[in-house]
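Design request, tokens follow.
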């Protein structure tokens, strides 16, 4: 399924019983909470601590582009801390919308594996921190939509063929009836770039974690089936195969390329690799490249004083170097 499912994410929202929600915490309270959660987490495993106030805007946005933190987390960096595992698959945002946003990301469709890791760490943290919990409502969160399990499970899907066939909007309207939502590359209120979509559960109250995961896995599997069938249809057209080949050619030779064009071309090439039209690249290398050519990641690599034009030149240079 890795041809379609790029990655899996499990996110748990937790709050400490004796502290108001972050929106009501003063600066000293936020620092105290950051220190308390950090101490508990570091006693369990080795995390790097990143105090968001110490990052430049470019460094912060680059972390969003790598899906390690949320866009909301960098809207105000004061009193916010990120804990990041050495392999960068586990992150803990402290003082985002909730006190703790624990996130596990894995490649491919592996909801159970990601959940097991998140659940184990959550259990260990709960032994050291007093989480706000109601026998009636479950875990208490600032936003009512997260009440209950406090869990959001999501998978990143590359729906190139369905997007080309303009089927995603129809699928999106049907998903809400099943307690799921499909969004853009960076979640809520973001546009899909490179035909990449996040499919996630909407309901966390009155449903178990396992039921939510099973529902998401079943629907994701159905979307994978639809995408593969759509790919088989469109790839009988020589023009689509030609588009894949031309896209790779442009990426290998361009001297100036903006973000949107690069994402669209990489999406075409990813489709070609998945369908064995392109044999010189791997899905893993392309998925890494998609993260590396995001705007802030280019600035972090080559200097955040670049103009937009200079950034597009550096992106083209970087793509040529990696693909040739």
């Amino acid at each position: 399924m890795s041809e379609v499912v790029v990655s899996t994410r499990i996110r748990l929202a937790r709050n400490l019983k004796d502290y108001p929600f972050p929106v009501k915490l003063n600066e000293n309270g936020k620092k105290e909470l950051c220190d308390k959660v950090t101490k508990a987490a570091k006693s369990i495993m080795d995390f790097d601590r990143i105090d968001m106030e110490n990052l430049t805007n470019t460094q912060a946005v680059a972390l969003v582009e790598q899906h390690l933190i949320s866009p909301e987390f960098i809207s105000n960096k004061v009193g916010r801390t990120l804990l990041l595992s050495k392999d960068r698959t586990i992150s803990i945002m402290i003082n985002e919308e909730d006190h703790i946003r624990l996130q596990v990301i894995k490649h491919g469709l592996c909801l159970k594996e990601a959940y097991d890791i998140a659940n184990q760490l959550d259990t260990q943290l709960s032994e050291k921190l007093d989480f706000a919990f109601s026998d009636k409502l479950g875990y208490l969160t600032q936003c009512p939509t997260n009440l209950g399990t406090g869990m959001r499970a999501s998978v990143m899907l590359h729906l190139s063929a369905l997007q080309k066939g303009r089927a995603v909007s129809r699928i999106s309207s049907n998903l809400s009836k099943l307690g799921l939502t499909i969004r853009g590359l960076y979640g809520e209120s973001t546009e899909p770039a490179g035909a990449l979509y996040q499919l996630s559960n909407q309901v966390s109250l009155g449903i178990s974690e396992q039921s939510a995961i099973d529902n998401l896995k079943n629907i994701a599997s159905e979307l994978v089936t639809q995408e593969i069938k759509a790919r088989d249809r469109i790839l009988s057209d020589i023009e689509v195969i030609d588009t894949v080949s031309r896209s790779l050619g442009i990426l290998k030779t361009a001297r100036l390329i903006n973000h949107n064009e690069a994402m669209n071309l990489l999406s075409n090439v990813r489709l070609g690799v998945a369908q064995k039209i392109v044999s010189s690249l791997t899905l893993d290398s392309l998925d890494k490249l998609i993260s590396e050519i995001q705007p802030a990641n280019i600035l972090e690599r080559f200097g955040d004083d670049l103009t937009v034009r200079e950034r597009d030149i550096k992106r083209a240079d970087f793509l040529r170097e990696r693909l040739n």
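Comment from the thread starter after seeing the answer: thanks! The chain has eleven helices and ten strands.
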